[in-house]
Design brief:
Blueprint: H1 2-11, H2 13-16, H3 18-56, H4 59-62, E1 64-70, H5 75-85, H6 88-91, E2 94-102, E3 106-108, E4 116-123, E5 130-135, E6 152-158, H7 159-165, E7 172-177, E8 194-205, E9 223-226, E10 231-239, H8 244-248, E11 254-262, H9 272-286, E12 297-299, H10 302-345, H11 347-355, H12 360-389, H13 396-422, H14 440-466, H15 475-495, H16 497-507, H17 514-524, H18 526-565, E13 569-572, E14 593-602, E15 615-620, H19 622-628, H20 640-643, E16 658-663, E17 678-683, E18 686-696, E19 708-712, H21 713-719, E20 729-733, H22 739-747, E21 754-757, H23 758-767, H24 769-799, H25 801-813, H26 818-855, H27 858-861, H28 873-900, H29 903-908
Parallel strand pairs: 4-10, 6-8, 15-19, 16-18
Antiparallel strand pairs: 1-11, 1-12, 2-4, 2-11, 3-4, 3-7, 5-8, 6-10, 7-8, 9-10, 13-20, 13-21, 14-15, 14-20, 16-19, 17-18
Helix pairs in contact: 1-12, 3-10, 3-12, 3-13, 3-24, 10-13, 10-15, 10-18, 10-24, 12-13, 14-15, 14-26, 15-18, 15-26, 16-17, 17-26, 18-23, 18-24, 18-26, 18-28, 24-28, 26-28
């Protein structure tokens, strides 16, 4: 009965202290909501990130293809056999199956235009992908020719192909099989089979970007190879499916391709647990062949996409976990602060209950049940709201996290009540001990905690620098900010009272009451002073840390976009060719500057052993290109000898080599060179001499880590005398609004030039779900931490209002004016705020520097991209201003209420 009576007496406090209970309930509910919703949000982001990676890949990368060179009588049956060998997890994500046939190439014996070879193809379902503009679909020719005649076939070609090779409806062309075709490499003697084919239809490909075409454009247009003097057209023609037996009777091998198209919407992050091992087994089963006829060749990039996604997801999880731990630390501080104030307000009740015979066990049991009665329903409410707010797969970690929040809050309430419950009855009426009196045992414990935190964090940085960084969730990495924060907080709590007491002793000599009373009030009420100091310090540190990480990622991505593209826009020809009749981009409104360039992969002209490695020759217009990249992260200053771009007739010879910059990374097999040494490169069949005038680590527009030679374009053009050559690139400076105008320039040409926008690439990187989750996670962490800091300050003001009002009432009866009241408030709260700002900014910068190697930020910036910690001081100032504004509003409200309260009413309030 005594236990029941004690419990009942303390549980009545729930009704008496409604505001404190409601505040605690809201705090636990919000914390549980955040803890429960976080894994569900990350689950959604992970699924979106996987879908983004799949959509951003090419049709060849995300789908499966099996191919072989042989002869089959039943092509579809062979495809069914392959299908049955696929794992069930792979079959489940395939929504469409197709096959394609292709014959060896046949060379036209009397080409209408220039040398032409034709491959005859048929693809399952091609009739639905083309529109016939003239003629009809090809049919199987009946009757077949006898053995003495030349087989004849009907074909259809694209309108673009017909215009290029000058054929039309009704033309009958004779062709002989190309003995050099790779399909015939195992046949000896090489066949000389001849056929006739009649063009009976001209078609137009409706949508070349459709996944049906598997990234191939041969059925839509020709490809021209060879040289400018002797071009060779590679064309493709469609034959009738009924003519397949006739082609097979030619005795020639054919290329067979079975394609399995993946429905990306059937793949989510959870499905990868089954899919990834099966893809690896599929790779080991079909990944290697002997090269004999009939061997299946397996081709897909799906496993690479999954591996790339999982690496990015793991790095994102590591970064987001670091961002999430910070608000948890602030939440613990806020809950601890509220628990201390609640228990402090119950001091009179606890003393009364203990004085009437309640044991420590009874007091703690009552506090336990009271805590569970408040925290468990609040945690359940947070879980329910999380499930309603975010639709995702069931995740037990959400419920477990909310339960941990409820139990942890209850434990903090017990910890706050423990000193009063265990204190001897003879000491119950004594005031709190002087905060300057600390037991040696506590000092040892705190010193150990500080040493372990700092040592662990430093070891984490050394491990990250020495290895490849931390991938995936690492509790050690995630807890590092909190460890450092605890260490700094403990040191601050030990050091902070010393200058406060010193200032109090100095101001005690003054005649006015405000400074000395305000400073001594901090020491008399450590719970209301030190915990807010710790909470504000952690909040500012989280804000600074989040700002630094987000700024480092954003500026790194911005610089990487300049490094990758080399300008605001880049117009380039297909690899190995030059630009066609592209007009000068300066004619487009808004274009500020442009520069031409020639980008070629060239071999060295010397023939020493092991020196055949090629190098990128990047010839630019130096002065114009400097104007293109001026005032940007890619801004360069070229040596004067390159900017002068000599064009003497003897340039490029050993007597007058072309000045050039060489990459710091020399090609494999090249002898070591220094400034002033020469090198010879084979540029389109002509050896040109270059002299090294400097070394550079990287150059805008060239892939990081590549080997290259940068030279003036005019000098290369002047030195090359085999035939006129044209640039292969145009770099353009201008805002994003000039993009449509540049598109118009390309539409007016007949070539296959492409336009690359740096801004679009930068926006695409920023829009990637997993990349955006990092920036959003740190911003959310800052917002949550700020909210908890505001809640902590409001809790101090609200829950400590009675004590403060009583103290101020006594002072006002002694003649304290309203102006002095404001000054007292400033003296009490200004030191903690100033100390929190100084420590928080320093802590945030140090933690960002310590943890940057372990976060793997290069994954979000670009491959091989350098990562540097960068600070946006405007953002740091905004973080400090936001926290200070919250404190000012809370304190100002408290002062306003205190000034409007009646001293008589305040003096009548009890301590309870």
């Amino acid at each position: 009965m005594r236990t029941v009576a004690a419990v009942a007496a303390l549980l009545r406090r729930l009704r008496v202290e409604r505001e404190a209970v409601v505040l605690l309930f809201v705090l636990v509910a919000v914390t549980s909501l955040l803890v429960a919703i976080s894994p569900r949000l990350f689950q959604r982001v992970s699924d979106d990130g996987l879908q983004y990676e799949l959509a951003d890949s090419t049709v060849v990368q995300r789908n499966l293809q099996f191919s072989t060179v042989s002869q089959f009588t039943r092509v579809e049956a062979r495809g069914q056999e392959i299908w049955e060998r696929l794992p069930p997890s792979v079959q489940a994500i395939v929504d469409q199956r197709r096959f394609a046939l292709e014959t060896p190439r046949f060379v036209l014996l009397d080409p209408p235009n220039y040398a032409t070879s034709v491959a005859f193809q048929y693809q399952d379902g091609i009739e639905e992908q083309v529109t016939f503009e003239a003629g009809r679909r090809p049919l199987a020719v009946t009757p077949r020719t006898d053995g003495a005649g030349v087989p004849r076939f009907e074909v259809a070609v694209s309108t673009a192909t017909a215009e290029a090779i000058l054929v039309g409806i009704g033309d009958v062309l004779r062709a002989r099989v190309d003995a050099s075709d790779p399909m015939l490499r195992r046949i000896w003697p090489r066949p000389v089979t001849e056929i006739d084919f009649e063009v009976v239809g001209l078609y137009r490909v409706d949508e070349l970007e459709d996944p049906f075409w598997f990234g191939e454009s041969r059925m839509a247009r020709i490809a021209v190879t060879g040289t400018e003097e002797f071009p060779l057209a590679l064309a493709s023609a469609m034959f009738a499916p009924g003519a397949y037996p006739d082609f097979r009777e030619l005795g020639l091998p054919m290329s067979y391709r079975w394609r399995y198209f993946v429905a990306t919407d059937r793949i989510d992050d959870a499905y990868l647990e089954t899919l990834t091992p099966d893809l690896r087994r599929l790779e080991s089963t079909f990944g290697s062949t002997t090269g004999t006829p009939g061997d299946l060749t397996y081709r897909t990039g799906l496993l690479d996409i999954v591996d790339r996604y999982e690496a990015l997801r793991a790095t994102t999880q590591a970064a987001v976990s670091v961002a999430a731990i910070g608000p948890i630390g602030v939440a613990i501080g806020a809950v601890s602060l509220i628990a201390l104030i609640i228990v402090g307000r119950r001091r009179t009740a606890l003393v009364l209950v203990r004085g009437r015979g309640a044991s420590a066990r009874q007091v703690l049991a009552a506090q336990l049940w009271e805590g569970l009665l408040v925290t468990v329903p609040a945690a359940l409410m947070g879980v329910v709201l999380a499930y309603l707010a975010v639709e995702a797969r069931p995740d037990p970690s959400s419920t477990r996290g909310a339960v941990v929040v409820a139990l942890a809050t209850t434990a903090l309430l017990l910890a706050a009540a423990w000193p009063w419950a265990r204190r001897a009855r003879r000491d119950l009426e004594r005031d709190d001990p002087d905060v300057r009196r600390t037991t040696p045992r506590r000092l040892v414990v705190e010193a150990t905690v500080v040493g372990v935190a700092l040592s662990a964090t430093w070891l984490l940085r050394e491990r990250s620098i020495g290895g490849e960084g931390v991938l995936g969730f690492d509790p050690f990495l995630a807890a590092a900010p909190v460890l450092v924060g605890i260490a700094v907080g403990l040191m601050a709590i030990r050091v902070y009272p010393l200058p406060i007491h010193l200032l109090a002793a100095v101001t005690a000599r003054r005649r006015d009451l405000v400074p000395v009373h305000g400073l001594r009030s901090i020491g008399r009420h450590p719970g209301a002073a030190y915990l807010p100091l710790l909470v504000m310090t952690l909040t500012i540190a989280i804000g600074v840390f989040s700002s630094v990480i987000e700024t480092s990622i954003q500026r790194g991505q911005f610089a990487a976009s300049w490094q990758e593209v080399g300008a605001d826009f880049r117009i380039e020809a297909v690899p190995g060719s030059t630009l066609g009749s592209v007009a000068d981009p300066v004619t487009v409104d808004g274009v500020e500057a442009s520069a031409a360039a020639l980008n070629l992969l060239v071999p060295p002209a010397f023939g020493s052993p092991g020196s055949a490695t090629g190098v990128i020759l990047h010839a630019i217009e130096p002065v114009d290109y400097e104007a293109v990249v001026a005032d940007s992260p890619a801004a360069i200053s070229l040596p004067p000898v390159i900017r002068q771009a000599p064009t003497d007739p003897a340039i490029g010879t050993p007597a007058m080599p072309i000045p050039a910059l060489l990459s710091s990374r020399a090609p494999n097999g090249w002898p070591v060179r220094g400034v002033g040494d020469t090198l010879a490169l084979q540029v389109k069949g002509q050896a040109l001499e270059f002299v090294i005038v400097g070394f550079v680590e990287s150059f805008p527009g060239l892939r990081l880590g590549s080997t290259f030679v940068v030279a003036p374009l005019e000098s290369v053009f002047a030195a090359y005398d085999v035939a006129p050559i044209a640039p292969s690139m145009l770099f353009v400076r201008g805002p994003a609004s000039v993009g449509p105008g540049l598109h118009g320039l390309l539409d007016a040409t007949s070539g296959e030039e492409t336009e690359i926008s740096r801004q679009q690439q930068y926006d695409a990187v920023r829009a990637a779900p997993l990349v955006a989750a990092v920036g959003g996670g740190f911003l959310m962490a800052l917002a949550i931490a700020t909210a908890y800091a505001a809640l902590a300050v409001v809790a101090v003001v609200a829950l400590d209002a009675r004590r403060r009002a009583r103290e101020l009432a006594f002072l006002r009866t002694l003649g304290l004016s309203e102006r002095q009241l404001v000054g007292l408030t400033v003296v009490e709260h200004a030191p903690p705020v100033l100390v929190a700002v100084a420590m928080g900014v320093g802590l945030g910068l140090v933690v960002a520097w310590l943890l940057e190697p372990g976060l793997g930020l290069a994954v979000f910036i670009g491959p091989q991209a350098p990562v540097t910690v960068q600070v946006d001081w405007a953002a740091v100032a905004a973080v400090i201003g936001a926290v200070i504004a919250v404190v000012i509003v809370a304190i100002g409200s408290s002062s306003w209420v205190a000034r409007r309260s009646s001293p008589t009413d305040a003096l009548r309030m009890g301590e309870g």
